[in-house]
């Protein structure tokens, strides 16, 4: 059978196809055919679609930028924190923030009375009173133990408060954590550069500037602190470096300064007062205003109560018993004295010291307070309200040890103008004792006679000078004692011209008037200037028998912790200026000034005293300087601008102030006589008050020298004394129409052969 050719006609399934297994998709569509899903019809107009699209695009851009920026900032902050972290030392090395040391001053009893510089005392949070640590945390950073260096809630709250009070967001409350404040105290790790900064104060002031850039820099530094140190370490740095007013750096120093106790022993009220100082140390310092400091402490106590640190009973007790200053802190005595001591010591151990220094001084707090009370009483009673008149007072022992100093009416200031040591004023008649000291040393006697009458002195260049007495009266021939007692000008100038101005200048200078002394005839009337300290020290030389003294306040200086002092006493007894006989006679004459002369307002009852008034010719200065057996005191009164005093002379208010001060400081002390020499030089007089003196001898009965002196002095014939007491008439050699010049030392009444001198020559002649 022939096979068919050509393409067969398919009328059914392919036999091959029949062998395939087909599985149809569930949707019934043929495989291999691409279908396009139909989109839902768009709704809305093109404007809406454009807005939505734009917002979406912006959001995507912002979000993308933000997380990228955040990542960059995180890396920058992390790198900065790591940098700061690598430079942080051990926490103990950051406790003491001072560039200078401190000076602590002790009085003659060894008690602290003044501080200079910034005092410091190390304290750690584990050794401090818990209530003080709690007060600091409650006041400065209640979330301190829960954050990592920053408190966003605190910052937001501070910004809100600042804006509500009309300030800028970063002005006023800063919302800084304690960690951030430590960063600021550490100046963000910067150290003082003397080339860039004028001084440490300027450097620290710049560190405290709260600019935005500095706030930004605080963030990584705060993170570094938190990473490097524990919370207690950070708190320790804060509590040691913080300045708390009155020169106290750190809470230990502040506790000692204000309460005279360590920081471990403070009460809740005291802790609150200390913590309150952190906001404004100088403003809230209790030494500046105790009531203001107590009010601030009440705010802190309530914060502590709200945060659970104090219960109701503790709060009530603390508010009922507010913190008060220690006796030394409240007295604030010795400001002028302390300033003077700082000046007398070497700068590298006082004002510029880099060490903590302790100085033992001659200061007596009881005498200082007594002097301040006396001055205040006189001014309250005798001086008009609103008067600008000033006063200065110096109290010292006969050896020059200064016990008290008042440099102005405001006795609570430090660093103020000290009129006792800085004001050089004309001394007036208070200079006259040095004229008579020169005369007595030259051989004159208190009984010598000098004429008190009109006087004209020829001056260089053909000029002439004619002094006049204060009363414009003249008394004719008077004794030297009367001339000094009445403060007669013409008589004093005649004595000066007789002994020579050079001799007067030498005596005054050797006694301690180191200011420039004039060479003109007005020298004897106090035309030259001197400070109150100089003049009082010179009178101390008279009081101790003619030996000069250098006033001093520093007794011993040592570095804190050292056993051996670096310095000892800076002054004291010096060289003999006039003989003991001349000094004793001068003391006798100065006693008469108070007894019946120009200084009667200075009388101390039965207590013997000697002194001299002083008033300048223009009434710009009034003085009274005098002494008892125990103390030497000088008083000056005047105006800072040299305005003349109205109705005030040295024998008036200055004498009354002197009497009030000496009365206060001698209360309870025994009445001791002054050792003087009788007018004829025959013996030592131990005066009893203003009464009749009697001739005795100092020393015990067993002393052969004293016994011999007593025998000679008491055996002097009274008629011989009377004959000697007539004295010699003194005239000024340069006086117009005056007598012939007198040779110094030619006195007929009290010379080297007087009774006392003969007794000494007889006793000592065989030695």
UniProtKB/TrEMBL annotation:
Region Disordered: which residues? 1-41, 731-767
Concerning InterPro entries, the annotation shows:
Beta-lactam/transpept-like, Glyco_trans_51, Glycosyltr_51/Transpeptidase, Lysozyme-like_dom_sf, PBP_transglycosylase, PCN-bd_Tpept
Q: What class of enzyme is it?
A: transferase
> Locate the Penicillin-binding protein transpeptidase domain: which residues?
392-636
Residue ranges annotated as coiled coil are none
Composition bias, kind Basic and acidic residues: at what positions?
A: 16-30
The UniProt entry, under NCBIfam families, shows:
PBP_1a_fam (TIGR02074)
What name does UniProt use for this protein?
peptidoglycan glycosyltransferase
């Amino acid at each position: 059978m022939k096979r068919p050719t050509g393409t067969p006609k398919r009328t059914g399934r392919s036999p091959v196809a029949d062998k395939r297994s087909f599985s149809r998709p569930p949707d019934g569509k043929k495989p291999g055919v691409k279908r396009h899903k139909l989109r839902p019809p768009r709704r809305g107009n093109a404007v809406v679609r454009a807005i939505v699209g734009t917002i979406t695009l912006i959001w995507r851009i912002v979000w993308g930028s933000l997380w990228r920026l955040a990542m960059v900032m995180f890396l920058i902050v992390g790198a900065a924190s790591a940098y700061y972290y690598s430079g942080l030392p051990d926490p103990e090395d950051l406790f003491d923030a001072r560039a200078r040391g401190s000076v602590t001053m002790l009085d003659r009893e060894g008690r602290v009375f003044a501080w200079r510089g910034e005092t410091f005392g190390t304290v750690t949070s584990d050794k401090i009173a818990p209530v003080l640590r709690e007060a600091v945390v409650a006041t400065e950073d209640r979330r301190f133990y829960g954050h990592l260096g920053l408190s966003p809630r605190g910052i937001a709250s501070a910004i809100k408060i600042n804006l509500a009070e009309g300030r800028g967001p970063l002005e006023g409350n800063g919302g800084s954590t304690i960690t951030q404040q430590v960063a600021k105290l550490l100046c963000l790790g910067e150290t003082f550069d003397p080339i860039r900064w004028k001084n440490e104060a300027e450097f620290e002031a710049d560190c405290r500037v709260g600019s935005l850039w500095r706030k930004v820099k605080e963030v990584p530094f705060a993170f570094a602190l938190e990473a490097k140190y524990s919370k207690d370490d950070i708190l320790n740095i804060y509590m040691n470096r913080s300045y708390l007013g009155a020169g106290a750096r750190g809470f230990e120093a502040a506790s000692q300064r204000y309460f005279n106790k360590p920081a471990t022993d403070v009460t809740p009220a005291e802790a609150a007062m200390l913590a309150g100082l952190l906001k404004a140390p100088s403003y809230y310092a209790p030494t500046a205003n105790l009531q203001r400091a107590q009010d601030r402490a009440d705010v802190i106590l309530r914060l502590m109560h709200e945060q659970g640190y104090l219960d109701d009973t503790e709060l009530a007790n603390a508010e009922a018993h507010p913190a008060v200053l220690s006796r030394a802190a409240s007295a604030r005595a010795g400001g002028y004295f302390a300033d003077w001591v700082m000046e007398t010591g070497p700068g590298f151990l006082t004002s510029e010291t880099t060490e903590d220094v302790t100085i033992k001084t001659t200061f007596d707090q009881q005498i200082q307070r007594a002097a301040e009370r006396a001055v205040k009483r006189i001014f309250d009673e005798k001086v008009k309200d609103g008067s600008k008149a000033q006063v200065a007072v110096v109290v010292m022992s006969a050896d020059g040890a200064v016990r008290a100093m008042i440099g102005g009416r405001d006795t609570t200031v430090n660093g103020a103008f000290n009129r006792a040591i800085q004001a050089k004023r004309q001394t007036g008649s208070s200079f006259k004792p040095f004229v008579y000291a020169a005369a007595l040393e030259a051989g004159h006697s208190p009984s010598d006679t000098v004429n008190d009458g009109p006087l004209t002195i020829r001056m260089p260049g053909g000029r002439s000078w004619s002094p006049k007495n204060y009363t414009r009266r003249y008394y004719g021939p008077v004794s030297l004692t009367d001339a000094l007692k009445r403060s007669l000008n013409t008589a004093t100038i005649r004595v000066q011209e007789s002994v020579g101005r050079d001799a007067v200048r030498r005596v005054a200078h050797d006694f301690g008037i180191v200011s420039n002394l004039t060479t003109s005839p007005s020298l004897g009337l106090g035309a030259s200037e001197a400070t109150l300290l100089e003049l009082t020290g010179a009178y101390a030389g008279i009081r101790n028998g003619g030996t000069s003294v250098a006033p001093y306040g520093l007794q011993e200086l040592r570095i804190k912790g050292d056993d051996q002092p670096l310095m000892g006493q800076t002054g004291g007894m010096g060289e003999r200026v006039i003989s003991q006989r001349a000094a004793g006679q001068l003391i006798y004459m100065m006693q008469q000034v108070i007894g019946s002369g120009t200084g009667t307002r200075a009388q101390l009852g039965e207590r013997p005293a000697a002194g001299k008034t002083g008033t300048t010719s223009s009434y710009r200065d009034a003085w009274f300087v005098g002494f008892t057996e125990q103390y030497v005191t000088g008083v000056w009164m005047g105006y800072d601008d040299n305005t003349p005093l109205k109705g005030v002379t040295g024998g008036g208010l200055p004498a009354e102030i002197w009497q009030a001060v000496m009365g206060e400081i001698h209360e309870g002390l025994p009445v001791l006589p002054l050792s003087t020499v009788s007018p004829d030089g025959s013996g030592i007089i131990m005066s009893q008050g203003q009464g009749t003196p009697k001739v005795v001898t100092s020393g015990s009965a067993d002393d052969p020298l004293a016994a011999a002196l007593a025998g000679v002095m008491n055996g002097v014939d009274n008629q011989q004394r009377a004959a000697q007491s007539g004295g010699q008439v003194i005239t000024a050699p340069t006086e117009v129409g005056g007598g012939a010049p007198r040779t110094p030392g030619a006195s007929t009444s009290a010379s080297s052969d007087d009774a006392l001198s003969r007794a000494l020559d007889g006793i000592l002649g065989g030695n």
